[in-house]
Amino acid sequence: MTNMILLLQLLIASTAYSLDNGLGLTPRLAYSTWNFYGTSASEADVHAIAASLQRTGLKDLGYTTINIDAGSLNRDPTTGKLVENRHHFPSGLRNLSDFLHGAGFQFGAYNDISGHTCGQGPAAGSLHHYEADAEVFAHDWQVDYLKFDFCGVQMPGSPPENCTGVVGRSCGCVPVNSTEQYAAWAALTRALNKTGRPIYLDFCPHAIADGIGTEVPKGKLMYAPPKDWTLPQRRALSNSLLVEYDNTQDAWNWHQSSGLIFNIDAMVKATDLSYSGPGMWNYADMLQICSYGKGNTPGDGMTLGEYRAHYSVWSVLASPLIIGTDLVTVERDHPDCLALLKNEDIVKVNQDQAALSARLVSQIPPFGSLEATTLNISAQVFARPLSGGRLAVVLLNRGPVAASLSVSWRELGIANGRAVQVYNVIKRHSAGSATNSFTATVPSHDVEFVIFGHMVGEKPLHGMGVTP
């Protein structure tokens, strides 16, 4: 009977309901507390983050959402109502929300689809409370952005969590299988839609690897939507859906099993890049940029070139850009990395109004070959069509030494023999022109990031001829 009910929920969610909240027309720009603060973020920290975003100019660049991650919520032991962690937020989340709104920011909050939350802070997951919690988020706290995690996972073959006699706290896991998991997410989306408040939804579904298409061993949990969720189904759930093998680490390659290069390959292999578009974006997880090994997440930090590659690939792949570093330290100790964060052209590529998806153009070794494992890939080229008929192109050198990387007009779909204007996104100036192909010497673990545009008086390079 339970399975029949869940299947009915799924059918309803996929036919009668859709997200369509008018948000996420471009990927979200935000700050999230998790990477640096973990579960310890406080009211004072949020005030300081807002001041830093304002002072550094990042707010003017579009980073106007501040999301408080795990550790901020609990439940009233008598009523079971969702409440804030008063040890960290003594004035209450509504007061903090009002402060942020008054300062020109949007307020983001966090919870979990199950009865559990991630980290070691208070756990107040929303399972069995979707409608009541939706009302608290939407009306009591006036939330604008909502991240929902999936930390209470019921694996195949595992019995349900015994919640008999549990009062005043959350309890229970959500089955990870595709159908029942989707039904839970759809029920949450419906509850939030019913509130009438537009809230940008950032969901973190999970899947059991089938051993096909990715390097994740069969049977292992990965943080990506199940393969069989169609594009309409995904769009009906959330404005962004997390896609990664494992959480991002502040490292290029962390113990040969995680790190930046693994996150890049998850975006290529664990989803379809073409699914990104207005209203729903593949999300490569929070940025580690400028953290330099400090904060809550594992990793010893990266070089400026590696952070440049990180920011550039997230930008061209149209992932939401969610900063998570300690901005006060970055201002004081890493002005060159702050300048990278504030590169307006990198952000403009990500936020381009044409809102088109990116693609992997080429890779060494070739995509799909047996040799093309994460640790063996030495180079990749990504492209994204932009408004005005332009093309953004990132040449990524993953190898140990500088390399000459090229992309041809044939690979980009540009007529052979045609000359194009070249703009260097990192250096923020014109780089002349190119014909038939473009080649650059790229340092190890770094990128060349360019925009190709048509010559004066000629046709756009592709069909999206919107004025940029």
Written account of the structure:
By secondary structure, this protein is α/β, with parallel strands linked by helices. The chain has 14 helices and 22 strands. The protein has helices at 2-15, 34-37, 43-56, 58-61, 93-102, 130-140, 178-194, 231-235, 260-269, 304-316, 327-333, 335-341, 344-350, 409-412, and strands at 29-32, 65-67, 73-75, 82-84, 106-112, 145-149, 153-154, 174-175, 200-203, 207-208, 221-222, 240-242, 281-283, 321-323, 359-364, 379-386, 390-397, 403-408, 419-424, 429-435, 437-442, 446-454. An eight-stranded parallel beta sheet has the order 13-12-9-6-5-2-1-14. A six-stranded antiparallel beta sheet has the order 15-16-17-22-19-20. It has a two-stranded antiparallel sheet with strand order 3-4. Strand 19 and strand 20 (429-435) form a beta hairpin. Helix 6 packs parallel to helix 7 (178-194). It starts with a helix and ends in a 14-residue tail after the last strand. The model is unreliable at 1-17 (pLDDT under 50).
Q: What about the largest sheet? A: 8 strands, parallel
C-alpha end-to-end distance: 54 Å
As residue ranges, the low-confidence spans are 1-17
Count of runs of 4 or more consecutive helical residues: 14
Spatial strand sequence of the major β-sheet: 13-12-9-6-5-2-1-14
The shape, in one word, is globular
Give average pLDDT, whole number: 93
Q: What level of helicity do the residues show? A: 25-40%
Radius of gyration over C-alpha positions, nearest whole angstrom: 22 Å
Helix/sheet category: alpha/beta
Q: What percentage of amino acids are in beta strands?
A: 15-25%
- Quantity of strands, as a count: 22
